Fold this protein.
Amino acid sequence: MEFSDPSYDRLETDRSFTHDFPAPVVSSYRMCLQLLRAATDEADLASMRMLDLRPLGNPSALHSIRLTDAYVLMLELKACSRGCVLWIVGVQPSSTVP
C-alpha cells in the first residue's frame, strides 16, 4: 500500500491525528485500510462486500469506497509483478465523486 500524501499514512497509524476529518470518517478510514491490507489480490477486494468498492470511469484503475454518507476513500489499483498495489489517493467529500 502506498499513499499519495504522507498525512494519509499518518491518519492510519497516529491515533491522535485526525487530519481535521470527523471522528466517524477517521474510524471508518482505519477500518477500511485494515481490510485493504488483508486482501491479497483483486478477487479478495471484490469479495469484501462491506467495502463497496466502486470503479470510477471505464476503464479506470480509480476506485472509491464510501466511508460515511459524506466522505469517500479514493484509491487506485495498480498492477505490478508481485500482484496488486493499492495507491491511496485521498479522502474526499462524496459530493465530488461522480
Notes: The first helix runs from residue 6 to 13. The two ends are 24 Å apart (CA to CA).
